[in-house]
Write a structure and sequence with these properties.
The chain is an alpha/beta fold. It has 17 helices and 17 strands. The protein has two domains: about 260 residues, P-loop containing nucleotide triphosphate hydrolases (Rossmann fold), CATH 3.40.50; about 180 residues, Rossmann fold (3-Layer(aba) Sandwich), CATH 3.40.50.
Length: about 450
């Protein structure tokens, strides 16, 4: 059966960092009781109390500040908790990650194994297309299982193979979250055995397809028990014909949920578009961050060289800034994301590839320094804020070139974007930051180095 969720059914937002009540933070596991998790019944909304979840899992949900389910959680949890397969269209920010994690943690706790498992033989496998998404899912899994005593291992390329191998061999593993390529490497060497998988989750299946991972995913699925012997969940931001065919091959009589992308963009994010010339964009960006005292903001550019140039510019003007793109080594990307989450980096400038999958609690602002050429990328970008029912603000700059992409975005999100001109004072270049030379003298940093004009040959 296929259900479309109504608009306007918003969940209670997660509290911002540090906003949990003191009694939530200080209570130990042994003193906690579900009676302390008081959420009044509301007509038309589902509470996590209503699903007969184990106390350790409810305790973690309580700590995270969750109260009422998001639309996708309310619709799909009754089916997945009963062991049914699931597939559907759902982007990050809808609460789908919590759906499959709550489902598998509930399963593990209610069905403890009586026999000893070999190292590297997980009960649950989550496949994701990128390292960033693997880390995000693993982090959320650890938060939800903090009182459950589960072992969760992240497996992905670009990091120390030996270190991950040691972690896999250190004892029984409950949940593995992996990218397909690195998982196959471990499987070939018999460091991971998949014949005992009870639940298989495939997240962002459309990106798996775009990145050419489907042959690898097929090999992995063929190593797991047959689909009538496992529970399978497949989620995709888009539902093309090929994704639908794959879902029918890999799942069995799934419950199907579809959330329209524009619901996320329109319902939870305030969208502002400034008409500005390309020469004034940096001044506008700096003044928005400075005058509004934005503590943490993700800024998107279309190309890697734009990311590098803008990051360098912000740094020259005294903004605590870092960049995130495919040119940055994986270890540094993880370090920068952790610092950004911890509030040690104020501005993160990113490309679409590096920025998709980023999950930051309490991030209120996303800025499109350059508008994406693909309307769907616009939705993915602004989805970094306004997550799981929380409100957020998206600011976009439309210059002489980017303004031509606005009609396509409006058509995709089924909404007119209000384009306004910024205050004149916000277009004034800030004073440059001075720095000391090694000799101890001070010099003014160049901001826009002049280039010699070349005549075309």
């Amino acid at each position: 059966m296929k259900k479309k969720l109504p608009k306007g059914n918003k969940s209670t937002a997660k509290p911002k960092s540090g906003s949990l009540r003191p009694d939530r933070e200080s209570r130990s596991f042994h003193s906690w009781d579900v009676s302390q998790f008081k959420v009044p019944p509301v007509e038309g909304r589902s509470r996590f109390h209503d699903f007969d979840l184990p106390n350790p899992l409810l305790h973690a949900i309580f700590d995270l500040g969750f109260e009422y389910c998001t639309p996708i959680q309310a619709e799909i949890l009754p089916s997945t908790l009963s062991g049914k397969d699931a597939s559907g269209r759902a982007q990050t920010g809808t609460g789908k990650t919590a759906v499959f994690l709550i489902t598998v943690i509930n399963r593990i706790l209610k069905n403890p194994l009586q026999i000893k498992r070999k190292p590297g033989t997980p009960r649950i496998l989550v496949l994701a297309p990128t390292r960033e998404l693997v880390l995000q899912i693993s982090d959320e899994a650890r938060q939800l299982s903090k009182y459950c005593g589960l072992k969760i291992v992240s497996v992905f390329g670009g990091m120390d193979y030996v270190k991950q191998k040691k972690e896999l061999g250190a004892g029984p593993v409950d949940i593995i979250v992996a990218t397909p390529g690195r998982l196959l490497d471990f499987q070939r060497n018999r460091d991971i055995i998949l014949n005992k998988i009870e639940v298989l989750i495939i997240d962002e299946a459309d990106r798996m397809l775009d990145m050419g991972f489907v042959p690898d995913v097929r090999k992995i699925i063929n190593s797991t028990p047959r689909k009538d012997k496992r529970q399978t969940m497949l989620f995709s931001a888009t539902l093309t014909g090929q994704i639908t065919r794959l879902a029918s091959q890999w799942t069995r009589n799934p419950v199907t949920i579809e959330i329209e992308p524009e619901q996320i963009a329109v319902e939870t994010v305030e969208q502002i578009v400034y008409i500005v010339t390309s020469s004034k964009k940096f001044a506008l960006l700096f003044n928005i961050i400075d005058k509004q005292n934005i503590e943490r903001v993700l800024v998107f550019c279309n190309r890697r060289d734009e990311v590098t140039r803008l990051s360098e510019m912000l740094t020259r003007y005294g903004v605590n800034c870092s960049e995130l793109s495919g040119d940055v080594p994986q270890k540094k990307r993880i370090q920068r994301l952790d610092k950004f989450k911890a509030g040690k980096i104020r501005v993160l400038v990113a490309t679409d590839v590096a920025g998709r999958g980023i999950h930051i609690e309490g991030m209120d602002h996303v800025i499109n320094f350059t508008l994406p050429h693909d309307p769907e990328d616009y939705v993915h970008r602004i989805g970094r804020t306004g997550r799981a029912g929380a409100t957020g603000t998206s600011v976009s700059f439309a210059d002489e070139d980017d303004s031509f992409y606005i009609p396509a975005i409006e058509k995709f999100i089924n909404r007119k974007l209000s384009c306004i001109e910024p205050n004149e004072e916000w277009l004034t270049m800030p004073k440059p930051v001075f720095s000391k030379k090694k000799s101890g003298t001070r010099r003014r940093k160049k901001v826009f180095p002049k280039r010699r004009s070349r005549s075309s040959s």
